[in-house]
UniProtKB/TrEMBL annotation:
<keyword id="KW-0408">Iron</keyword>
<keyword id="KW-0560">Oxidoreductase</keyword>
<keyword id="KW-0227">DNA damage</keyword>
<keyword id="KW-0460">Magnesium</keyword>
<dbReference type="GO" id="GO:0046872">
    <property type="term" value="F:metal ion binding"/>
</dbReference>
<keyword id="KW-0479">Metal-binding</keyword>
<dbReference type="InterPro" id="IPR037151">
    <property type="entry name" value="AlkB-like_sf"/>
</dbReference>
<dbReference type="InterPro" id="IPR027450">
    <property type="entry name" value="AlkB-like"/>
</dbReference>
<dbReference type="Pfam" id="PF13532">
    <property type="entry name" value="2OG-FeII_Oxy_2"/>
</dbReference>
<feature type="domain" description="Fe2OG dioxygenase">
    <location>
        <begin position="107"/>
        <end position="204"/>
    </location>
</feature>
<dbReference type="GO" id="GO:0032451">
    <property type="term" value="F:demethylase activity"/>
</dbReference>
<keyword id="KW-0234">DNA repair</keyword>
<dbReference type="GO" id="GO:0140097">
    <property type="term" value="F:catalytic activity, acting on DNA"/>
</dbReference>
<protein>
    <submittedName>
        <fullName>Alkylated DNA repair dioxygenase AlkB</fullName>
    </submittedName>
</protein>
<dbReference type="GO" id="GO:0051213">
    <property type="term" value="F:dioxygenase activity"/>
</dbReference>
<dbReference type="GO" id="GO:0016705">
    <property type="term" value="F:oxidoreductase activity, acting on paired donors, with incorporation or reduction of molecular oxygen"/>
</dbReference>
<dbReference type="GO" id="GO:0016787">
    <property type="term" value="F:hydrolase activity"/>
</dbReference>
């Protein structure tokens, strides 16, 4: 299996990286370190976090992370058998939304927040291809806190791409990526601190 490691070493970080059936932009230092740390502290302290879960083989299993859904008040989001009702935008979320929309080329109306408390928190292989996201959704992922490896895996070829998501980084997934690639943030045995990830979306 071919695997490519990309740790933010691009000649032009604003130019989309073309891959087999999709594209993305990764900017490791989109937010200055001090500002990223301010956002991390604010989100940990003020976001209304919940630990959702789902039925699996007749048993209720909690997700290994905390989540929250914010955005326009008429944009609920359904995945893994649950439906999240949005909480109203706060100041920090609106600031970030305004900053990333020009580069993303779209207007976001919702954001899913994930809080990884340590290395044992994770998210398994999945796509963000729910019908309410539209045909070729643009997903902007903002990352604060501990560095974690973000993995992409092509559904047919099994090709792998690893991207180290740094404190203050921005990853924009676009094109047909959600239809051709799975992605995950795996567990790690390293002793690491908290990470907050924001994935901005447009619910149709």
């Amino acid at each position: 299996m071919d695997q490519l490691n990309l740790f933010g070493l691009f000649s032009n970080p604003n130019e989309p990286v073309q891959i087999n059936g999709g594209s993305y932009i990764y900017i490791p230092d989109f937010f200055p370190h001090s500002k990223a740390s301010q956002y991390l502290k604010a989100f940990i302290e003020t976001i209304e976090w919940n630990q959702e879960g789902m039925m699996m083989y007749g048993k209720y299993v909690k997700f290994p992370r905390l989540t929250a859904w914010y955005g326009d008040n008429d944009k609920p989001y359904s995945f893994s058998g649950i439906t999240l009702q949005p909480k109203p935008w706060n100041t920090e979320l609106l600031e970030i939304k305004k900053l990333i929309e020009p580069l993303s080329g779209t207007t976001f109306n919702s954001v899913l927040l994930n809080r990884y408390r340590d290395g044992s928190d994770s998210i398994s292989w999945h796509t963000d291809a729910e019908k309410e996201l539209g045909r070729n959704p643009i997903i902007a992922s903002v990352n604060f806190g501990a560095e974690r490896v973000f993995q992409l895996k092509h559904m047919k070829t099994q090709e792998r791409i690893d991207i180290l998501l740094k404190h203050g980084s921005l990853l924009i997934m676009m094109g047909e990526l959600q239809h051709n690639w799975l992605h995950q943030v795996p567990k790690t045995q390293k002793i690491i601190g908290e990470r907050v990830n924001l994935t901005f979306r447009t619910i149709k």
